[in-house]
Amino acid sequence: MAETAAVQAGTPQAGWQVDRFVVTTALAGFALVGGLVWLETAPFMVALFAIGTVLGMALYHGAFGFTAGWRNLVVKKRGAGMRAQLILFGLSSLIMVPMLHSQAGLIGAVAPVGTSLVVGSFLFGIGMQLGGGCGSGTLFTVGAGNIRMVVTLVFFIVGTVIGSMHLAWWLDQPGFDPVPLVNTLGVSGAIIAQLVGLGLVAWWVNRIERKAHGNIERNELLWKGQQHGILRTLISGRWPFTWAILILAAGNALTLAVSGAPWSITFAFNVWGAKALEAVGVNMSQFEFWTWDYPAMALKDSVLTHIPSVMNFGLLLGAMLAAGLANKFNEASRNRPEARQFMAAVVGGLLLGYGARLGFGCNIGALFSGIASASLHAWIWFACAFAGSLIGIRLRPFFRLPN
User: Fold this and answer.
1) Residue 375 Cα to chain centre, angstroms
2) Strand, helix or coil at 176?
3) Cis peptide before 238 (omega within 30 of 0)
4) pLDDT by residue (tens digit) across 221-255?
């Protein structure tokens, strides 16, 4: 997710102001896209657009980042961000695993375990540290006006398309079918096993922090936002992690209930890139991936009927609205990348996209939604992406990116 909270959701000045132009532009975007979605599809898609909008605002105002959270643990030996992620996974597992196995027609985020998953998630981990965010982090920081992240997003899309061209080959390499933990442990057993796993990761995080600092950082960010009233904090940020955790968990559960599948991000990038190539005359059906039923249907249909795309549009506009309300959009847009930072965005974006396609998603679709679906692949994705992130963190100084 987001590179750093300081850049995206810094504390407003005492005389809080709203960027009226950005807020007006975002609201006009809501009206336009929401109206087109309504005319093109059905009310449930408008609901998903609205859910995406709220998720974008929560990601921005909560500064809820995988990228910075993982890096802070490695570099600063501080685990507040990582602990917030683990709480989110645990809460979502408690909500969504029973949902998936008590209601017919709901499909979890499960994926095969094999070479493609391991390689893809490892590359993604490198890319998230060089590019500055994962799928959702790239989107919400672009929505908030971050110039470097626009570069990351463009090459993220390029990387996903290249990955789609190669995925069939990768899937022929050693691996095995998806492993839903519920199939062997039952609903209660799967939830308990995952909570134990998350608890062990939390113990490891706390051990690292205690060894480096002698104590665990007070979890003020978990409960406290800015020193303002609730209403002002809600509108202008920065939110406590708890607020973001509750909204992200509820948003994913609502996405599952409304759409029949959990929240995902990066397949939309695949569709956008493939549609762009087809628009200039490239026949995507020459690549096996685009002959499979779901990709072929998504490529043929309008993006306004494609659930991940519609939610991504909402996420972008939600982050833009949040940045305007916090009067931080122009601040983010002034951060022009240096040459090496631009190169890092290009390389990081390509690795993010290629890794996401091979690894069946990003921190949202593969990890967050995967654990919420009690799928073994999500845990393997977590470990491999974190290992890749360690490499990415070591590479950041070369690209003049601060650690």
Assistant:
1) 18
2) strand
3) yes
4) 555 555 566 777 777 777 888 889 999 999 999 99
